[in-house]
Design brief:
- There is one protein chain.
- This protein is α/β, with parallel strands linked by helices and 398 residues long.
- It is built from 14 helices and 21 strands.
- Strands 12-11-8-13-16-17-19-20 form an eight-stranded mixed beta sheet, with helices on both faces.
- Helix 13 links the parallel strand 16 and strand 17.
- Helix 1 runs parallel beside helix 2.
- The two termini are 29 Å apart.
- Bound molecules: flavin mononucleotide.
- Flavin mononucleotide binds next to helix 5.
Length: 398
């Protein structure tokens, strides 16, 4: 619930501004008060009248409005909220925020306050992938700005990829996580999840049976405790949880790069089933049947993400948690893995087919740390995640 919370909602000029109307409704249903601010461009997409009617409050638009300035100055306005939400956060607004520009109502409000800020970016995939936007993202994260989304999918412009604004309920979940002072409030946690796909040629790949269910549950549980979660996921069967920053990847190399981009973090949970090998020279054309016999695939070793992060001389997360999926001698293998990789904890599980764990809804894990092993009973993956998140919160508090 968000009763007695005030959200300053800055609506930027993108197609996704229409979703912000629903966001206002959802926030008010949960008891929050919403002070809306429209950029000049946003008024091209939604009308001040609709926004004001839904929010039940006046809309702030013009920095130099004499009446507004006399009633509630922009400085006071920027500090009257528990949280500033920028949705949609346009490429332009992100650029202004990252470089400290203050040349209209929205950007001036963002500069004139130390109230926490949550951005829900929305833009064309090329705009999102542009090095300038990615630079701005990194800068804003370093400045403490939190992000929800963007999601991957079909876009209003007809293209496909990351850039779609998160759905209103996902943004609400992120707002609740940020405003509910859970034990992980203010902590940034990275979670990797799902399988990786290693291409053989443009249509074939090598994969594994990871569904991504346990990683997604861990990310959700950490977000519920108030953490800012960066969720780097391979092509999983289950959808990513709401309220986390989703970074979709395909290959182990892409996952490794995404992990580097996400650092520094307070804790890293490496639940992804990363392929150990990739095809050394994946063909850029579909391999054909040939009279010369079967194709011969040569393999190359993939980056060992867990080991590399665990052994970073600079910027190692204070807590590194690995997962070990084993089919025999689980404790022995997982204990050896913890020492070999240099991580703090290993969550070990037996994934032999008879257990039904891989792709199933339950898990039976053994938590291995420097102080010994802890065997948990067979539990739902959500419950395993809640217990692990609580342990992480304890460890980071201690
Ligand atoms: C039809 C249309 C759709 C647009 N959609 C987006 C968008 O989704 N994301 C974005 O960053 N910019 C988008 N733009 C560009 C912004 O409106 C433009 O950069 C504007 O200056 C942003 O102003 P603001 O950041 O002050 O709201 C769009 C422009 C047009 C004409």
């Amino acid at each position: 619930m968000l009763s007695s919370k005030r959200i300053l909602l800055i609506i930027g000029g993108g197609i996704a501004a229409y979703k912000s109307l629903d966001l206002i409704r959802r926030l008010r249903e949960r008891g929050a008060a919403v002070t809306p601010v429209l950029t000049r461009a946003a008024e091209e997409f939604v009308t001040p009248l609709s926004v004001s009617a839904l929010a039940g409050e006046k809309v702030y638009r013009d920095l130099f409005d004499l009446t507004d300035e006399a009633e509630m100055g922009h400085i006071q306005l920027s500090r009257s909220a528990d949280l500033i939400v920028v949705a949609p956060a346009t490429a332009d607004l992100m650029g202004k925020m990252a470089s400290g520009l203050a040349n209209d109502m929205a950007s001036t409000l963002l500069m004139a306050t130390d109230t926490p800020v949550l951005c829900a970016p929305a833009m064309n995939v090329r705009m999102w992938d542009h090095p300038a936007t990615q630079r701005n993202l990194k800068q804003l994260q370093a400045d403490g700005v939190r992000f929800v989304g963007p999601n991957e999918g079909d876009m209003a412009c007809g293209e496909f990829g990351p850039g779609r604004m998160s759905e209103p309920l996902e943004i609400v979940a992120a707002i609740e996580a940020q405003l509910t002072a859970g034990p992980l409030a203010g902590k940034r946690v990275l979670v990797t999840s799902g399988p990786t796909h290693e291409p053989i040629d443009p249509v074939r790949y090598i994969a594994n049976r990871s569904s991504g269910a346990q990683g997604a549950a861990v990310a959700r549980a950490l977000a519920h405790l108030g953490a800012e979660v960066i969720f780097v996921t391979g092509p999983a069967d289950v959808p990513p949880p709401a309220g986390v920053q989703v970074v979709p990847v395909e290959t182990a190399q892409q996952m490794s790069d995404a992990v580097d981009t996400a650092l520094p973090v307070d804790a890293g949970v490496f639940a992804a089933a990363v392929a150990d090998w990739r095809v050394a020279s994946a063909s850029d054309k579909k391999l054909k049947k040939s009279r010369d016999g079967l194709p011969v695939l040569e393999f190359a070793e993939n980056p060992d993400i867990l080991k590399r992060v665990s052994q970073l001389a600079v910027g190692r997360p204070p807590l590194v948690v690995g997962f070990a999926a084993e089919t025999d001698d689980v404790v022995e293998h997982a204990t050896a893995k913890r020492l070999r990789k240099g991580c703090d904890w290993i969550v070990a599980n037996d994934v032999s087919p008879a257990t039904g764990i891989m792709g199933g809804s339950e898990n039976a894990v053994i938590l291995i740390s420097g102080s010994g092993t802890e065997e948990w009973p067979r539990l739902g993956k959500d419950e395993v995640a809640r217990r692990l998140a609580a342990k992480i919160a304890d460890a980071l508090a201690g």
